[in-house]
Design goal:
GO terms for molecular function: dioxygenase activity. InterPro entries: Cupin_2, GDO-like, RmlC-like_jellyroll, RmlC_Cupin_sf. This is Cupin. By secondary structure, the chain is α+β, with helices and mostly antiparallel strands. The protein is built from seven helices and 23 strands. It has a single domain, classed as Jelly Rolls. The strands form five sheets. It has a six-stranded antiparallel sheet with strand order 1-19-16-21-14-13. A six-stranded antiparallel sheet has the order 2-3-10-5-8-12. The radius of gyration is 23 Å and the shape is globular. The structure holds 2,5-dihydroxybenzoic acid (GTQ). 2,5-dihydroxybenzoic acid binds next to strand 3, strand 4 and strand 10.
Protein backbone atom coordinates (compact mmCIF):
# COMPACT_ATOMS: atom_id res chain seq x y z
CA UNK A 1 0.00 0.00 0.00
CA UNK A 2 1.32 3.47 -0.85
CA UNK A 3 1.32 6.17 1.83
CA UNK A 4 -1.69 7.89 0.30
CA UNK A 5 -3.57 4.59 0.06
CA UNK A 6 -2.78 3.87 3.71
CA UNK A 7 -4.04 7.37 4.67
CA UNK A 8 -7.20 6.88 2.67
CA UNK A 9 -7.78 3.48 4.30
CA UNK A 10 -7.44 5.04 7.75
CA UNK A 11 -9.80 7.85 6.74
CA UNK A 12 -12.40 5.32 5.57
CA UNK A 13 -11.87 3.38 8.76
CA UNK A 14 -12.48 6.54 10.85
CA UNK A 15 -15.74 7.11 8.95
CA UNK A 16 -16.81 3.54 9.66
CA UNK A 17 -16.09 4.05 13.37
CA UNK A 18 -17.98 7.36 13.35
CA UNK A 19 -21.13 5.67 12.04
CA UNK A 20 -21.06 3.60 15.26
CA UNK A 21 -20.33 6.68 17.42
CA UNK A 22 -16.77 5.54 18.05
CA UNK A 23 -13.69 7.68 17.64
CA UNK A 24 -10.02 7.02 16.82
CA UNK A 25 -7.86 8.49 19.58
CA UNK A 26 -4.89 8.84 17.18
CA UNK A 27 -6.74 11.71 15.42
CA UNK A 28 -7.85 13.51 18.57
CA UNK A 29 -5.27 12.98 21.28
CA UNK A 30 -3.71 16.41 20.62
CA UNK A 31 -7.02 18.10 21.36
CA UNK A 32 -7.71 16.03 24.48
CA UNK A 33 -4.31 16.10 26.10
CA UNK A 34 -2.94 19.55 25.34
CA UNK A 35 0.64 20.37 26.36
CA UNK A 36 -0.68 23.36 28.34
CA UNK A 37 -4.09 24.59 29.50
CA UNK A 38 -5.95 25.89 26.47
CA UNK A 39 -9.63 26.65 26.27
CA UNK A 40 -9.96 29.66 23.97
CA UNK A 41 -11.02 31.99 26.82
CA UNK A 42 -9.51 35.43 26.19
CA UNK A 43 -9.00 38.35 28.57
CA UNK A 44 -11.55 41.17 28.53
CA UNK A 45 -12.34 44.40 30.40
CA UNK A 46 -15.65 46.11 31.17
CA UNK A 47 -15.93 49.77 32.20
CA UNK A 48 -17.83 50.56 35.38
CA UNK A 49 -19.65 53.59 33.95
CA UNK A 50 -21.25 51.41 31.26
CA UNK A 51 -22.45 48.76 33.70
CA UNK A 52 -23.73 51.38 36.17
CA UNK A 53 -25.63 53.35 33.54
CA UNK A 54 -27.31 50.25 32.10
CA UNK A 55 -28.21 48.96 35.55
CA UNK A 56 -29.97 52.24 36.40
CA UNK A 57 -31.81 51.90 33.08
CA UNK A 58 -32.78 48.34 34.07
CA UNK A 59 -33.92 49.83 37.38
CA UNK A 60 -36.66 51.76 35.64
CA UNK A 61 -37.52 48.96 33.19
CA UNK A 62 -37.60 45.87 35.40
CA UNK A 63 -39.50 45.41 38.63
CA UNK A 64 -38.32 42.80 41.11
CA UNK A 65 -40.33 39.73 42.01
CA UNK A 66 -40.48 36.03 41.22
CA UNK A 67 -40.74 36.70 37.48
CA UNK A 68 -37.39 38.47 37.39
CA UNK A 69 -35.76 37.09 40.60
CA UNK A 70 -32.68 39.40 40.47
CA UNK A 71 -31.78 42.64 38.66
CA UNK A 72 -28.30 41.72 37.50
CA UNK A 73 -26.25 42.57 34.43
CA UNK A 74 -23.50 40.02 34.03
CA UNK A 75 -20.14 39.86 32.28
CA UNK A 76 -20.33 37.96 28.99
CA UNK A 77 -16.80 37.24 27.86
CA UNK A 78 -17.08 37.44 24.04
CA UNK A 79 -14.80 34.40 23.72
CA UNK A 80 -17.42 32.33 25.59
CA UNK A 81 -20.41 33.50 23.59
CA UNK A 82 -19.97 31.13 20.66
CA UNK A 83 -22.56 28.57 19.48
CA UNK A 84 -25.59 30.10 21.18
CA UNK A 85 -23.94 29.97 24.63
CA UNK A 86 -25.06 32.47 27.27
CA UNK A 87 -21.47 33.29 28.25
CA UNK A 88 -19.85 33.85 31.64
CA UNK A 89 -16.70 35.67 32.67
CA UNK A 90 -14.48 32.56 32.40
CA UNK A 91 -15.28 28.91 31.73
CA UNK A 92 -15.85 28.31 35.46
CA UNK A 93 -16.65 31.74 36.95
CA UNK A 94 -19.69 33.95 36.61
CA UNK A 95 -19.72 37.58 37.74
CA UNK A 96 -22.37 40.26 37.49
CA UNK A 97 -23.47 43.48 39.12
CA UNK A 98 -26.75 43.63 40.98
CA UNK A 99 -28.84 46.75 41.63
CA UNK A 100 -31.31 47.03 44.48
CA UNK A 101 -33.40 50.18 44.89
CA UNK A 102 -34.66 51.51 48.25
CA UNK A 103 -37.59 49.45 49.52
CA UNK A 104 -37.08 46.57 47.10
CA UNK A 105 -36.79 42.89 47.94
CA UNK A 106 -34.96 40.31 45.85
CA UNK A 107 -36.90 37.20 46.95
CA UNK A 108 -35.46 34.34 48.97
CA UNK A 109 -34.08 31.27 47.22
CA UNK A 110 -31.25 28.77 47.47
CA UNK A 111 -29.05 27.00 44.95
CA UNK A 112 -26.12 24.61 44.83
CA UNK A 113 -23.83 27.24 43.29
CA UNK A 114 -21.60 29.05 45.77
CA UNK A 115 -22.06 32.83 45.74
CA UNK A 116 -20.13 35.82 47.00
CA UNK A 117 -21.07 39.50 46.93
CA UNK A 118 -18.63 42.38 46.94
CA UNK A 119 -20.26 45.72 47.71
CA UNK A 120 -19.45 48.48 45.22
CA UNK A 121 -21.77 51.33 46.23
CA UNK A 122 -24.08 51.41 49.21
CA UNK A 123 -25.11 53.59 52.12
CA UNK A 124 -25.38 50.72 54.57
CA UNK A 125 -29.18 50.41 54.35
CA UNK A 126 -29.19 47.34 52.13
CA UNK A 127 -28.83 43.86 53.61
CA UNK A 128 -28.71 40.18 52.77
CA UNK A 129 -30.04 37.45 54.99
CA UNK A 130 -28.21 34.14 54.88
CA UNK A 131 -30.14 31.31 56.56
CA UNK A 132 -31.75 33.90 58.81
CA UNK A 133 -28.68 35.95 59.67
CA UNK A 134 -29.20 39.50 58.50
CA UNK A 135 -26.05 41.34 57.48
CA UNK A 136 -25.80 44.93 56.28
CA UNK A 137 -23.86 45.83 53.14
CA UNK A 138 -21.26 48.57 53.11
CA UNK A 139 -18.88 49.46 50.32
CA UNK A 140 -15.92 47.06 50.22
CA UNK A 141 -17.59 44.31 52.29
CA UNK A 142 -17.39 40.70 51.07
CA UNK A 143 -20.50 38.67 51.88
CA UNK A 144 -20.73 34.88 51.50
CA UNK A 145 -23.78 32.90 50.49
CA UNK A 146 -22.57 29.31 50.84
CA UNK A 147 -24.15 26.65 48.60
CA UNK A 148 -27.76 25.74 49.49
CA UNK A 149 -28.26 28.54 52.04
CA UNK A 150 -31.47 30.59 51.82
CA UNK A 151 -30.83 34.18 50.84
CA UNK A 152 -32.82 37.29 50.04
CA UNK A 153 -31.73 40.89 49.67
CA UNK A 154 -33.58 43.96 50.98
CA UNK A 155 -33.01 47.68 51.24
CA UNK A 156 -33.97 49.97 54.15
CA UNK A 157 -31.79 52.90 52.98
CA UNK A 158 -32.31 55.77 50.57
CA UNK A 159 -29.74 55.32 47.77
CA UNK A 160 -29.43 52.66 45.05
CA UNK A 161 -27.00 49.92 46.08
CA UNK A 162 -24.70 48.14 43.62
CA UNK A 163 -22.74 45.01 44.32
CA UNK A 164 -20.74 42.40 42.44
CA UNK A 165 -22.09 38.85 42.46
CA UNK A 166 -19.64 36.00 41.90
CA UNK A 167 -20.84 32.42 41.44
CA UNK A 168 -19.26 29.18 40.22
CA UNK A 169 -21.93 28.89 37.54
CA UNK A 170 -19.70 27.53 34.77
CA UNK A 171 -18.05 24.98 37.04
CA UNK A 172 -21.33 23.68 38.45
CA UNK A 173 -22.88 23.53 34.98
CA UNK A 174 -19.92 21.53 33.64
CA UNK A 175 -20.12 19.17 36.60
CA UNK A 176 -23.93 18.93 36.23
CA UNK A 177 -24.58 19.80 39.86
CA UNK A 178 -27.11 22.62 39.60
CA UNK A 179 -30.12 22.69 41.91
CA UNK A 180 -32.38 25.67 42.59
CA UNK A 181 -35.33 26.18 44.92
CA UNK A 182 -37.42 29.30 45.56
CA UNK A 183 -38.54 29.90 49.14
CA UNK A 184 -42.36 29.86 49.52
CA UNK A 185 -42.31 33.45 50.75
CA UNK A 186 -40.41 36.56 49.58
CA UNK A 187 -38.31 36.69 52.73
CA UNK A 188 -36.84 33.96 54.92
CA UNK A 189 -37.44 34.62 58.65
CA UNK A 190 -34.69 36.66 60.29
CA UNK A 191 -33.44 34.98 63.46
CA UNK A 192 -31.10 36.20 66.19
CA UNK A 193 -28.90 39.27 66.21
CA UNK A 194 -28.00 40.90 62.84
CA UNK A 195 -24.31 40.58 61.92
CA UNK A 196 -23.73 38.10 64.76
CA UNK A 197 -21.03 36.27 62.83
CA UNK A 198 -19.07 39.53 62.44
CA UNK A 199 -19.41 40.17 66.17
CA UNK A 200 -18.11 36.68 66.94
CA UNK A 201 -15.24 36.34 64.46
CA UNK A 202 -13.78 39.80 63.73
CA UNK A 203 -9.98 40.25 63.96
CA UNK A 204 -9.13 36.56 63.68
CA UNK A 205 -10.33 35.67 67.18
CA UNK A 206 -13.56 33.82 67.94
CA UNK A 207 -16.16 33.94 70.63
CA UNK A 208 -15.74 30.96 72.99
CA UNK A 209 -19.33 29.93 72.27
CA UNK A 210 -18.06 29.03 68.76
CA UNK A 211 -15.28 26.64 69.82
CA UNK A 212 -16.97 23.53 68.50
CA UNK A 213 -17.52 24.93 65.01
CA UNK A 214 -15.09 23.65 62.40
CA UNK A 215 -15.26 23.20 58.67
CA UNK A 216 -17.51 24.45 55.89
CA UNK A 217 -19.42 26.62 55.40
CA UNK A 218 -17.55 29.48 57.02
CA UNK A 219 -19.44 30.72 60.09
CA UNK A 220 -18.41 34.29 59.16
CA UNK A 221 -20.62 35.65 56.39
CA UNK A 222 -19.48 39.28 56.12
CA UNK A 223 -15.81 40.23 55.80
CA UNK A 224 -16.03 43.94 56.64
CA UNK A 225 -13.91 46.29 54.55
CA UNK A 226 -12.93 48.28 57.64
CA UNK A 227 -11.25 45.13 59.05
CA UNK A 228 -9.69 44.03 55.75
CA UNK A 229 -8.36 47.50 54.99
CA UNK A 230 -6.69 47.72 58.38
CA UNK A 231 -5.07 44.30 57.90
CA UNK A 232 -3.78 45.21 54.42
CA UNK A 233 -2.42 48.52 55.64
CA UNK A 234 -0.66 46.73 58.52
CA UNK A 235 0.72 44.19 56.03
CA UNK A 236 2.12 47.09 53.99
CA UNK A 237 4.80 47.55 56.68
CA UNK A 238 6.23 44.20 55.56
CA UNK A 239 7.69 43.03 52.24
CA UNK A 240 5.20 42.96 49.36
CA UNK A 241 4.64 39.84 47.30
CA UNK A 242 6.44 40.43 43.98
CA UNK A 243 3.53 39.00 41.94
CA UNK A 244 0.58 40.37 43.92
CA UNK A 245 1.71 43.34 46.02
CA UNK A 246 0.21 43.55 49.52
CA UNK A 247 -2.36 40.82 49.15
CA UNK A 248 -4.63 38.70 51.33
CA UNK A 249 -6.93 35.74 50.77
CA UNK A 250 -10.28 35.82 52.53
CA UNK A 251 -10.29 32.75 54.78
CA UNK A 252 -12.67 30.58 56.72
CA UNK A 253 -11.70 31.47 60.31
CA UNK A 254 -12.26 27.91 61.54
CA UNK A 255 -10.09 26.12 58.95
CA UNK A 256 -7.69 28.69 57.52
CA UNK A 257 -8.83 27.54 54.06
CA UNK A 258 -10.62 29.63 51.46
CA UNK A 259 -13.60 31.61 52.84
CA UNK A 260 -15.81 29.72 50.40
CA UNK A 261 -14.88 26.10 49.71
CA UNK A 262 -15.02 26.51 45.92
CA UNK A 263 -14.74 30.25 45.23
CA UNK A 264 -11.43 31.88 46.05
CA UNK A 265 -11.42 35.57 46.98
CA UNK A 266 -8.51 37.98 47.45
CA UNK A 267 -7.81 41.67 48.01
CA UNK A 268 -4.56 43.28 46.94
CA UNK A 269 -3.12 46.73 47.43
CA UNK A 270 -0.68 48.27 44.97
CA UNK A 271 0.92 51.51 46.17
CA UNK A 272 1.54 54.27 43.57
CA UNK A 273 4.08 53.17 40.90
CA UNK A 274 4.09 49.57 42.21
CA UNK A 275 4.53 47.13 39.33
CA UNK A 276 4.08 43.41 39.99
CA UNK A 277 6.15 40.84 38.11
CA UNK A 278 4.42 38.61 35.57
CA UNK A 279 3.27 35.13 36.45
CA UNK A 280 0.62 32.69 35.28
CA UNK A 281 -1.42 30.00 36.99
CA UNK A 282 -4.04 27.42 36.14
CA UNK A 283 -6.83 29.14 38.06
CA UNK A 284 -8.75 31.92 36.33
CA UNK A 285 -9.58 35.27 37.91
CA UNK A 286 -12.21 38.00 37.69
CA UNK A 287 -10.88 41.31 38.99
CA UNK A 288 -12.90 44.24 40.28
CA UNK A 289 -11.13 47.55 40.88
CA UNK A 290 -12.34 48.82 44.23
CA UNK A 291 -10.16 51.91 44.05
CA UNK A 292 -7.35 53.37 41.96
CA UNK A 293 -6.02 53.75 38.44
CA UNK A 294 -3.56 51.58 36.58
CA UNK A 295 -3.17 48.87 34.01
CA UNK A 296 -2.60 45.16 33.77
CA UNK A 297 -0.71 43.40 31.02
CA UNK A 298 -2.37 40.09 30.16
CA UNK A 299 -0.66 37.91 27.55
CA UNK A 300 1.10 40.95 26.10
CA UNK A 301 -2.05 43.10 25.91
CA UNK A 302 -2.42 46.23 28.04
CA UNK A 303 -5.73 46.68 29.88
CA UNK A 304 -6.17 50.12 31.44
CA UNK A 305 -8.43 50.24 34.46
CA UNK A 306 -9.90 52.66 36.97
CA UNK A 307 -12.31 52.42 39.92
CA UNK A 308 -15.23 50.09 39.36
CA UNK A 309 -13.93 48.31 36.24
CA UNK A 310 -13.93 44.53 35.85
CA UNK A 311 -11.43 42.41 33.94
CA UNK A 312 -10.72 38.76 33.38
CA UNK A 313 -7.45 36.84 33.57
CA UNK A 314 -8.08 33.50 31.79
CA UNK A 315 -6.41 30.26 32.92
CA UNK A 316 -2.64 30.03 32.34
CA UNK A 317 -2.30 33.66 31.13
CA UNK A 318 0.73 35.82 31.86
CA UNK A 319 -0.35 38.84 33.89
CA UNK A 320 1.18 41.73 35.80
CA UNK A 321 -0.37 44.85 37.37
CA UNK A 322 0.83 48.42 37.55
CA UNK A 323 -0.54 51.29 39.63
CA UNK A 324 -0.14 54.39 37.46
CA UNK A 325 -2.17 56.67 39.73
CA UNK A 326 -1.22 58.81 42.69
CA UNK A 327 -3.15 56.90 45.35
CA UNK A 328 -3.18 53.26 46.47
CA UNK A 329 -5.01 50.84 44.19
CA UNK A 330 -7.15 48.11 45.74
CA UNK A 331 -8.06 45.15 43.53
CA UNK A 332 -10.66 42.64 44.67
CA UNK A 333 -10.62 39.31 42.85
CA UNK A 334 -12.62 36.14 42.50
CA UNK A 335 -10.97 32.90 41.38
CA UNK A 336 -11.37 29.14 41.09
CA UNK A 337 -8.09 28.30 42.83
CA UNK A 338 -9.66 26.25 45.68
CA UNK A 339 -11.11 23.82 43.13
CA UNK A 340 -7.89 23.60 41.12
CA UNK A 341 -5.95 22.92 44.32
CA UNK A 342 -8.40 20.34 45.57
CA UNK A 343 -8.19 18.49 42.25
CA UNK A 344 -4.41 18.67 42.16
CA UNK A 345 -4.46 20.81 38.99
CA UNK A 346 -3.03 24.07 40.29
CA UNK A 347 0.37 25.16 38.92
CA UNK A 348 2.22 28.47 38.80
CA UNK A 349 4.94 29.72 36.49
CA UNK A 350 6.89 32.98 36.77
CA UNK A 351 8.24 34.95 33.82
CA UNK A 352 12.04 34.77 33.67
CA UNK A 353 12.76 36.91 30.60
CA UNK A 354 13.01 40.68 30.50
CA UNK A 355 13.35 41.05 34.27
CA UNK A 356 9.95 39.44 34.80
CA UNK A 357 7.96 41.94 32.75
CA UNK A 358 6.08 41.29 29.51
CA UNK A 359 6.53 43.22 26.27
CA UNK A 360 3.38 45.20 25.54
CA UNK A 361 2.25 44.17 22.07
CA UNK A 362 -1.20 45.79 21.94
CA UNK A 363 -3.57 47.96 23.93
CA UNK A 364 -7.14 46.81 24.62
CA UNK A 365 -9.76 49.32 23.49
CA UNK A 366 -12.88 49.04 25.67
CA UNK A 367 -16.25 49.75 24.11
CA UNK A 368 -17.28 53.14 25.43
CA UNK A 369 -20.78 54.53 25.95
O1 LIG B 1 -28.50 37.24 44.32
O2 LIG B 1 -29.02 35.18 44.65
O3 LIG B 1 -26.01 37.30 40.05
O4 LIG B 1 -29.03 33.57 42.59
C1 LIG B 1 -27.00 35.17 40.05
C2 LIG B 1 -27.77 34.22 40.70
C3 LIG B 1 -27.28 36.65 41.91
C4 LIG B 1 -28.56 36.07 43.94
C5 LIG B 1 -26.77 36.36 40.66
C6 LIG B 1 -28.30 34.49 41.96
C7 LIG B 1 -28.03 35.72 42.58
Amino acid sequence: MSTSEAKEALHQFANKLASHHLGPLWDNIGEMVTPQPSNGVTPYLWKWQTIRKYLLEAGSLLSLGRASERRVIYLQNPSLLKEGKIGYATNTLYAGVQLLLPGEIAPSHRHSQAAIRFIIEGDGGAYTTVDGEKTYMRRGDLILTPPWTWHDHGHEGGEPVFWMDGLDVGLVKTLTGSFFEPYHDDTYPVTGEPDRSVLRYASGVRAISERKKYGYPSPLINYKWSNIQKTINDLSKLEPDPYDGYAVDYINPTTGGSADARLGTSMQKLPPAFHTRAHRHVHSVVYHVLEGTGYSVINGQKFEWSSGDFFVVPPWSWHEHHNSGETDSFLFSLNDRPVMELLGLEKEDVLQENGGYQQIESVFEPITL
